[in-house]
Structures
1.
Amino acid sequence: MNRPPAGPGLPGSPAPSDRKVTVPDLRAARTSGRRIVMLTAYDYPTARILEAAGVDILLVGDSLGNNVLGYENTLPVTMDEMLHHTRAVTRAARRALVVSDMPYLSFQTGRRDAIRNAGRFLKEGGAGAVKIEGGRKRASLVQALLDAEIPVMGHIGLTPQSVHLMGGYRVQGKKIDQARALVEDAVALEEAGAFSLVLEGMPESVGRAVTDAVGIPTIGIGAGRFCDGQVLVIHDLLGLGETPPPKFARRYADIGREIGTAVRRFIGDVREGSFPSEAEVYTAPEAVGPARRAGQ
Ligand code: KIV
């Protein structure tokens, strides 16, 4: 694919503003060359703002674990936690497609578990699709989920649920055989029926080779400029993370600092007695006399 390396995405969105972005819309976006925009969202107010701004896909990522729930990584995240946050996001999503991440051990334990858990995201959470980590070893599972009418987004490269196997969060596919394996993973997932692929943490040349090898849209995070779309964790984009954002993320705001400044002002106002002011209190038509004590 000969995609221009950078520059603003094409205007417009995969779906008219009055209806939901669908899986076929995303395939069409790939064909038309319109770049897909995906962001993580974990709660109602954030999802509402991202939705109004025009994001195509809201990913309820299992990065919920480290970004919202204070876990060290994504492994402890449970189905109940994911469902709770998926419901909050789908309540806000009128137009954006909501994709829920299948958390660790919700799909690795067998096909029945995977179908039941993925189905809960659609049935109880209101999501439109699920995402699962892993390459060709997930191909038969993708088919099984499709048989249960569940659209699946694949996720290859740096897959955070494999953090212990990878020995940390390391860029994948730097060696030629690993790069070829990633291309094979992508093709296997496409053949199994995945409707798109997240490519995470790989050299740009590998992201490009994978994108060229498949006909479904690729959505990159740390996978370079040649993917069909980009995704970021919203905390990295907004400056809400605990640590500096990774090299591939761009910080567009410093909301963490803004929150700290606002809260310090509030603390100061309360302590010095300037909050609440007269304008910020309710008044009653009649003055309340001193309270009577029992027996008086
Ligand atoms: O959980 C997540 O936020 C993700 C993105 C990094 C793609 O899987």
Note: The chain has eleven helices and eight strands.
2.
Amino acid sequence: MAKEQKRVYYFGGKKADGQANMKNLLGGKGANLAEMVNIGLPVPAGFTITTEVCAAYYDNKGRYPKELTTQVTEALKEVEKEMGAKFGDKDNPLLVSVRSGARASMPGMMDTVLNVGLNNITREGLIKKTKNPRFVYDSQRRLIQMYSDVVMEKAAGIEPAEGKGVRQQLEKELHNMIVKYGVKSETELSADALKELVEIYKKKVKEVLGKPFPEDAMEQLWGAVAAVFQSWNGKRAISYRRIEGIPDAWGTAVSVQSMVFGNMGDSSATGVAFTRNPATGENYFYGEWLPNAQGEDVVAGIRTPNPINEICKNEHTRHLPSLEKRMPVVYKELHKIQRILETHYRDMLDIEFTIQDKKLYMLQCRVGKRNGPASVRMALDMLKEKLITKEEAVIRVQPNQLDELLHPILDPKAELITKPIAKGLPAGPGGATGQIVFNSADAVEWKKKGKQVILVREETNPEDIEGMRAAEAILTARGGMTSHAALVARGWGKCCIVGAGECEVDALTKTLKIGNFTLKEGDFISLNGTKGNVYQNALPLKKAEPEKNPDFKAFMKLCDEIRVLKIRTNAETPEDAAKARLFGAEGIGLFRTEHMFYGLNAEKPLFLLRKMIVSKTEEERRAALNELFPFVKEDIKGTLKVMDGLPVTFRTLDPPLHEFVPKKPEERAKLARSLAISAEEFNKRAEALHENNPMMGHRGVRLGITYPEITEMQVRAIFEASAELLKENKKPFPEIMIPVTCADTELINQYALIDKVYKEVCDKFRLKSIKHLIGTMIEIPRACITADKIAGVAHFFSFGTNDLTQMTYGFSRDDTATFLPKYIDNKILPEDPFNILDQEGVGFLMKVAVEKGRSVRKDLKIGICGEHGGEPLSVEFCNSLGFSYVSCSPFRVPIASLAAAHATIKEKMNAPKKVVAKK
Ligand code: ADP
Ligand code: MG
Ligand code: MG
């Protein structure tokens, strides 16, 4: 006969069946309880029912595997032996807690039930044993309160009306008792009062739920166990799993553990603590405790908890008693244990403990949650303490945690007590406060007057650029994570919330309506762009200055030491370039030449560009280009200078020309005059530029082929700027990038032009050479498929994954709002492919392109300059394909750097271990 499967794992005394690495089977809580027993810490005995039982329970329509009952009975016997008490016994009763625990901690799962096994008979035994009737009645009323709520109501799927839940009704009874006996709080209720309350509770449970409270200890135990399994498929748990991407199949374990009592009087207590301060990362024991309390009293916030020691006191808790002072001996032991635990787990831990009559018990430990700054600080400290390796220090900080160090944030304390007035998509992280303005001009104006403003728009477009720049933050009612506002804000590291659907923005009357209340121009609001929350009024801000933060700098240095992938930035102004250099960028991966026609000081060049666009003959066009040339050259030179010694990739003009043709009649008239043509003629020419599908129209390399003089002017500007810098003893390194290529022949055509200009400039400046590369953007599927041919001409590839995604899916990026949300809701697509690179489809094309390209040119430089270049998962993917660099907006540079370091570490961890040959 096959050996029956082990379903129950005992822990207690000096031995445990399980250990820390068995989280999948025992859940996080069960595995760590076992581990604490194994390393000799005081843990009340108990046993864990495996997650496999949960799976079997669901597979078999709520029936347990048949061997479970016997295994539980046996484990319970062992627990009874260890604790010297018997479950359900009238003279010497053992009480237990029933605790849920999945692999990952899951708020929203079932609450724990304490004091299971207590009834009117066993309580008499416990009273005799402890000589503390008050404590026993208090425990019993707590059991009824928890059990009826968690097991009889929630797990049974009963959804009571607001305020009608059994817990609330029982709490009302408790309150009535407090009033009746004229005391201040429940802790002052006498034993007799609590005994009376137990009977009132039982009656109420029957009345509310139509069933009596189970008195039988075994019935209580199995009821609680079943409730834990049921709770795995409760509404809250399911929705939490959806958000966090936890598979349904994991299941939860159940730990049944002997009760220890923190509510036996003033020499008893309970508490939670962290081995280091989780908010700052500082290396001192941090925590809270309550005397004469049980279980969740500390976290529930019913009573204000006390600081655990003197060092973690603050101005609000200074007057409260610390455990360190109140129970110095127990505190010392607890302090020693938390050190043992941290050294053992080599990480900051979150621990739960209870003191029963001066004796300390450990009830839980797990790796503690921490915020971004704390996470960086701890990683650096633990590395210094030689507790962890450099790689571990880097892998422990998540990209979104590092992000927290880069943006000012709303003061979390203030946020905690304020309710958001609206919610949207978290497009630009960080926090901001300011006065509402409704258009770009007002934003600029108010900013000039020294005001801080938040630009509120239905949605933004390129004409809002100046206002967006001037604003502290941007809020739009429409648009998605890749909308114009979102892209721009992310590029600047600006706080931004888009698609806040409840907001009705009326730019005419300058009002923002949310539900039935209205905000006007000048009213203050606050945004949390990391969460997507909008608040009324100005909440206090906490500033971030990463470049002045020594922790940040030290941590980035670690990343730089580990990663192989280079990090560049997308930037087109000397200021952005300088910022990115400060953050560690090793070049510019995308400089869009057209940027100089938007925003500040763009008037003159834009006018000249427009003149060029509506020119009809080559002669007219060349004249306009000649006028434009000095502006373009200056612009390019500024950035090359800041990036001295590092590569700068200049993309030649990309957008379709009609985008630049003015719509306003007065602007059109002015242009017509300067070209000496009539208004009709002007309109005719503008009309001719119209395209049905401009994204796939006359743009990119196609412009350079139809109007070679445009390419010529741009590359001349690039080479002359470089030549001038060489004369100033600088080291410019331009890379010329041709966009929207689909065939090698396009490049051959442009290459000839570029080469001609290159030679002319070298001659003009009497230079033998100017260091440069000529390459192409890969953003059309055909370019990927014919990459071997293209690499015959191009020195480098840079993947434009925005367009490549657009072309591969056949989705117009600017029009996805109408259908993509539905796709994602219905899981037709796992996520927005413009946000997170689609490795299966788009990534496949990239892989093909890399392989084909490098088969022809071994040292082909390969990068990415699409939005995905700063997205951690996509960065890892690029690393796996053997890219030379990724390029992203300046504020994403540290994130990309961290992601690249993670990629290198993970690659090493997954690499097959070298087998040492035996002699
Ligand atoms: P959660 O997963 O919500 O933290 P726990 O299972 O840790 O739930 O239990 C909630 C509270 O009850 C914790 O404060 C814990 O310390 C306490 N508790 C759980 N089991 C026992 C026990 N056997 N004796 C005393 N207190 C317990
Ligand atoms: Mg807990
Ligand atoms: Mg493109």
Note: The pocket of adenosine-5'-diphosphate (ligand 1) is lined by residues 44, 97, 99, 112, 114, 257-260, 295-296, 352, 354, 363-364 (CB under 6 Å).
